[in-house]
Amino acid sequence: MKRFHVILIKPSRYDDDGYVISWFRGVLVSNSMAVINALTEQSDRQKVLGPDVEIITHFYDETVRRIPVKRLVREVQSGVDRAVVCMVGVQTNQFTRAVDLGKEFIACGLNVMIGGFHVSGSIQMLPRVPDEIQDGIDAGITMVAGEVENRWGELLKDAYNNSLKPLYNFLNDQPSLEGAVTPFVSKEILSFYGVLRQTSFDAGRGCPFKCSFCTIINVQGNTMRGRSPDDIEALIKRNQEQGIRGYFVTDDNFARHPHWEEITDRIISLKDKMHVSLMVQTDTMSYRIPRFVDKVARAGCRRIFIGMESVNSDNLKAVSKPQNRINDYRTMLQTWRDAGVVTHVGYIIGFPGDTYDSIMRDVERLKQELPIEFVEFFMMTLLPGSQDHLDNYLKGVPMAKDMNEYDTTRPCMEHPKMSRNELMRAYRDAWRSFYSRKHVETILKRRKDRRRKNIARHMIWFRNAVFIEGLHPFLFGLFRIKGRKRRSPKFRTEFVPVYYCRRTWDIASWVARTLLMVVELRYLYYKANREKNNDYMDITITPKSPVKKAFLSEETSTS
After folding, report:
1. Which tens digit of pLDDT belongs to each residue from 171-230?
2. Helix residue spans in 271-312 (DSSP H)
3. CA 551 to CA 519: how far, in whole Å?
4. Using the 8-state DSSP alphabet, how is residue 514 labeled?
């Protein structure tokens, strides 16, 4: 048998010192990697390269594994094997690292492809190929835009025959997901992540709303395409066979899936024989859909992520998000809480009308008026593929040239009312305020059911990411791994004594601060768990509590 190596890589990104961000254990496997892994397995079963060619898949997520470039090249070149390196699901902030890795493989004679939202969004929306993508093409890297369910075999054939084109554009060939191969990752791969019994899948793609900062609607479409209930049932049963029972449903908005009710009914029926736990993403108005909250909760939803974005109606209008009605927020959150679901909300900082004072006032309102367990703050970032990015691009507005900066935690363009330093101060202070010791204690006291312990555990994750590592929780993992030579080409390699002295101090500091944080959160948990707090009540969890006129009304403006 001839052998063709398909090396799947999810690249990481660089930190501010140029080091690759990676961890001893990660949080969650990439759904894009799971999809391409399953497509590659299917291609091998179908023998798309011929009956005498075996496809060998290599799976590397750089956030949890070092990419052994030289070893992989030796393995391929030791015989008569061929290979292609596929950078999968590459986001804008990962693109620079993806190109740097790609150049290493190109220099060794291997073909390289890069796909994901940065390439797809840029090709879809911009009038010309942007410089960073063109530079990658000029270096010999193939760029792939769009979804590849219908095209993966074709791409593998071109790679095997050494006839890859510089650019493939499948954006106008969006596949139907019904009956398509479902995402899959083996238990051995999942062992690199902290939660061994959790994986991810997309039940559907696209979103019907028109938020101007969103890339989903321009890359995956404004019409929802979904997998069938049979597909989801088969996926869950296959994972159950290898002991996987937790899932992050990566749909941008599961509530708008055309078959959400049939899918939840199917999962509910499976729960008689197996344990299923879900984290789901949805919109603020989904709680009004008849039976949605009840059935999602009964299907095993433990955590819900809601794109709230702002408590300022002017900000919501600025990004074409009229579906978010701020005077419904409290009722919406209370509905999810009553169903036993822990609430996470996405919140954007840096709208054009924001000031430092208005941001901090709005954060206080989040704390005092809404029963939210977790807020995930994001910096307003004009990602390639969004309407906002295109509008500013056409106007010639200066935006950051370094793709590594588009990680939604720092400003990528000048703000009309705040300096960069002031905007960063507001972003950091928002995290510090919401996750302060006092407010964490309040959050724990508000929750009187069994979810309280789960919330306390996740507080360790969030506060460790923000206060110790200085990273967004979505970019976080368990114990930072650094390699002295795993550094951006823009930085020089540090001398051995300097690097290891600094690294030793970093590890000792991390251990000490983490232990102190764990002790602190255990103390807050037991303090909140005292019997005298069983009757704790505030305005956020009071049923049908009166709404203050100065807040949560459509006329509110803090600009």
Report:
1. 999 999 999 999 999 999 999 997 657 899 999 999 999 999 999 999 999 999 999 999
2. 292-298
3. 36
4. H
Count CB neighbours of 30 within 10 A: 22
Map tokens 């620079």 to a residue: 96
Q: For residue 316, is it within any domain?
A: yes
Q: H-helix or E-strand containing 17? A: none
CATH of the domain at 52: 3.40.50.280
Cα 69 to Cα 333: distance, rounded to the nearest angstrom: 48
175 within some domain: no
3-state DSSP of 219-245:
HCCCCCEECCHHHHHHHHHHHHHCCCC
Q: Which strand (E) or helix (H) includes residue 505?
A: helix 496-528
The predicted structure's pLDDT at residue 553:
43
Whether residue 186 is contained in a domain is answered as: no
What is the pTM assigned to this prediction?
A: 0.93
In whole angstroms, what separates CA 184 from the centre of its chain?
18
- 352-357 long-range contacts, CB within 8 A, separation 24+: 352/318, 352/415, 352/416, 352/417, 353/312, 353/314, 353/315, 353/318, 353/417, 353/559, 354/315, 354/415, 354/417, 354/418, 354/426, 354/559, 355/417, 355/418, 355/559, 356/418, 356/422, 356/425, 356/426
Least confident of 259-268, 428-437, 540-549: 540-549
Provide the domain limits for residue 92.
Answer: 2-169
More confident residue, 272 or 350: 350
Give 142-174 pLDDT, tens digit per residue. Answer: 999 999 999 999 999 999 999 999 999 999 999
* Count of domains observed in the chain: 2
- Is residue 247 within 8 A of residue 274, CB to CB? The reply is no
Closest CA to 295 of 247, 343, 251, 261: 261
CATH number of the domain within which 441 lies: 3.30.750.200
**Average pLDDT estimate for 411-439:** 95
Choosing from 475, 494, 511, the residue where a domain stops is 475
| Residue ending a domain, choose from 145, 169, 193 | 169
Burial of 186 (0-12, 13-18, 19+ CB in 10 A): middle
